[in-house]
Amino acid sequence: MSATTLLQNTLNGLAIGGIYAIFALGYTLVFSILRIINFAHSAVFTLGAYLTYTLTGAPWGFNGLLAGMALPFGLPFPAAMLVSAIISGLVSVVIERLTLRPLRLRGADPLLTLVASLGVAITLVNIIQYMVGAENFSYPGRPFGAIPPAINFGSADRPVPVRTVQIIIFVVSIVIVVALTLFINRSMIGRALRAVAEDATTASLLGISTDRLIMLTFFISGFIAAIAGTLVGVSVSISGPYFGIAFGLKGLAVIILGGLGDIPGAVLGGLILGLIEAFVPPAYIQYKEAVAFALLFVMLLARPEGLLGRAVVQKV
Amino acid sequence: MAQAARSEIILEARGLSRNFGGLLAVNNVSFAVRAGEIFGLIGPNGAGKTTLFNLITGLNQPSAGTLIFAGKTLLHQRPHQIARCGIARTFQNIRLFGGLSALENVMIARHIHIRTGALAGMLSLPSARREEREARERALNLLAMVGLTERTDAQARSLPYGDQRRLEIARALALEPRLLLLDEPTAGMTPSEKHGLSEFIRDLCDRLPLTVMLIEHHVPLVMGLCDRVAVLDFGQLIALGDPAQVRSDPAVIEAYLGDE
């Protein structure tokens, strides 16, 4: 493997792995507080990608209720991503209040909650399809403005070009991971979140309102999901309303690999899955998911408690 | 404890009952706790003492009766709301956040005294940082008060048993409660540790505007420490009075003290 391919593959792997990581963080946060897998997370990811697309002022295609329409204004790409993330965070909170909370208050089995969240995911995805059809959309033009599309890491005669967008994705992912880790480990609210994750009853006896922290958790998880969705969209494209569901399965694999509820584990798991996929030889590219999942399976056989080998729900 | 404060009622239970299926864990119990006193609660295992604490802190709702704290009903209030009213507790089987440090365990109880919102916290605004610093200082003071200064950064689950008990009390005090419920605080302690804790509780009540309800099996400790003692047996209140009265009550001797 040449130096160029090695570098390019590594960066591709880290970029996509970074997205897997932040996406999986959303699952992990919710799991550590509520002990449920929230499938709606993958639909919010999709929603975020579509919202960012809309907010940049890009037009819709030939299908769906919104065919041919566009917003009368367009936000710069970073602003569009931020607004989309905020809206998606709120949508995530609404989903929790309308579907998961009623079930929780009735003491429903976690499996029931899981199925309900899957129902929400499919409904949301279908609404998106009803609005804009199942076409493939790409973010128009150069979303990051004047930044060149590729940077040469080699010399002039032996170029090692790397797509700028991959670097940006990786940096954004790292920033999110670091910010979230600091927030959870250092702030009063982060500390309360960890307390609720460990023992919600005792936390409530210390005056901590679990409901509000759950809302916050869902907001953060939806916020990050939208950024992850947007980053995938900008790296490849939005390949249809179902693209988040397939991605959601990988997110699940990542958190299981990382050890459920373990934040560093989820990050490491995401990066590993991204790198494995990036190094699948081009000849087998259509099997890259099979290869990646087979390797995950082998890793889990070796370390069933997850990569970092901790018990469920730990200091993050 | 000023004499004036003694007459003021801080917690009142009237006809309080709680059944679990067919079992009447608490059966038509009425009593009043005076502000500033140390109120002992004794009785054989399964007498309903911890259930009573669970009713007061909102972990269980009463099947019948009323509970009034500082003039406000506690019925239909969620545990976190009751905690915010000024009631804190510890547990018979210690419930610390094992993965968190001793300091963090205490700081968590400062959460209700935080004014800045989630966003300020996330963005680490100066106001949030200041509150964080204040919470840390308060927590460190409390840890010093219970003698855990050397252990602030130790993971709670790694602490020796006696330290865990003291840490749980420090955490409860961080809420700045008006009523502190201690569920067998000296369980598993050595006699000298028991004595030390007993002194500590008396000292707290003298220094702070604090009322203590105490579940305890060690009868000499209860009799020495408490201003008044209530005796539960099979969910019913069978005696209530100052230690001398309770000790000589024939029903108490038969139900509980006689077994000793």
What do these coordinates show?
The complex is a heterodimer of chains A (316) and B (260). Chain A has eleven helices and two strands. Chain A is mainly α. The longest helix of chain A is centred in the N-terminal third of the chain and has 32 residues, at 3-34. Chain A is globular and about 65 Å long. Residues 311-316 of chain A have low confidence and may be disordered. Chain B has 260 residues and is an alpha/beta fold. Chain B folds into two domains: 1-86 and 177-260, Rossmann fold (3-Layer(aba) Sandwich); 98-176, no CATH class. Chain B contains eleven helices and ten strands. In chain B, α4 packs across α6, α4 (102-108) packs parallel to α7 (161-174) and α6 crosses α7 (161-174). The A-B interface holds A 183, 187-192, 194-195, 198-199, 201-210, 216, 313-315 and B 57, 59, 78-80, 83-84, 88-89, 91, 95, 97-100, 104, 107-112, 114, 118, 121-122, 124, 128, 131-132, 135, 171, 175.
Task: Describe the protein's topology.
The complex is a heterodimer of chains A (316) and B (260).
Chain A: H1 3-34, H2 40-55, H3 77-105, H4 110-132, E1 150-152, E2 161-163, H5 164-186, H6 188-198, H7 200-205, H8 210-235, H9 243-258, H10 263-278, H11 288-302
Antiparallel strand pairs in A: 1-2
Helix pairs in contact in A: 1-5, 1-8, 1-9, 1-10, 2-3, 2-4, 2-8, 2-9, 3-4, 3-8, 5-6, 5-8, 9-10, 10-11
Chain B: H1 3-6, E1 9-20, E2 23-34, E3 38-42, H2 49-56, E4 64-69, E5 72-73, H3 79-85, E6 87-89, H4 102-108, H5 118-123, H6 126-145, H7 161-174, E7 179-183, H8 191-207, E8 211-215, H9 219-225, E9 228-233, E10 236-241, H10 243-248, H11 250-255
Parallel strand pairs in B: 3-8, 3-9, 6-7, 7-8
Antiparallel strand pairs in B: 1-2, 1-4, 4-5, 9-10
